[in-house]
Amino acid sequence: MPVPAHLPIVILNALPASGKSEVIAFLESLPDERRMSEFHFGKIRAIDDFVDLHTMQLIDEAREKIGLPRIHYAPQAAGGDMLEDRTWFTLLELLNTRYRTLLAKEPGLLEKHTLLIEFARGDDADAAFPLPYGYEKSYPVLDPDILRRAAVLYVKVSPAESRRRNIKRADPNDPGSILKHGVPEKQMKRWYSKDDMLSLASRSPEGTLKCGERLLPFGVFDNEEEKTGFVHGAPPWPADAVARLANGLRKATDQMWAATLRLAETRR
Question: Does this model's pTM top 0.85?
Fold first, then answer.
């Protein structure tokens, strides 16, 4: 396997409101040279399953208005939960379709770009491992071509802090916004009271995430003490806040890059 010039695909995971989209916005703001030299990222492109999730909700609202039954989600007044738990896997298949469509239209995209694939998975507080729709069960649903090229960046935030930030960021006037949407509290408790990422990482070789027979380069960005909040403001951003985020993020991406090089050598 040839050694890449940068991280071609990064799967970005975390609980809601943990800072995933803010990390993407920060990376997008950087000059190409700095983004590459400090973080091993090319130009940024991103796909997020929230777009498909929100579209499903809009479809249900439209169906309800014309007298048809909902097929994806309960009404927001009833908590807005999924009508069928396997919709989590449907969302992953839609990410696969968007990935294949993107590369069919732009076959050389990953030569200069890093594609970030963003999604959150978890379960309720009492769920036993392995979580039926957690990361361990979700990763095998992803297209093998994604997994072949991907590294994983996990933004570490506790469930309690995720809930706090989810309430803080929610803008009821902009429910389709990547940065400002809020997850209903009932869904936060049902689906995001815990996740299984660190459990999976603890059973994988250091610096990697084991997915079946594959090892994916893996890094953790600790954002429990929030380093990403300033991104919601307009630039120029405070230099000390930018440095704090950059330093924390660089530790994770350096670990991912080191594992990428190490795995590339073993596959030659």
Answer: yes
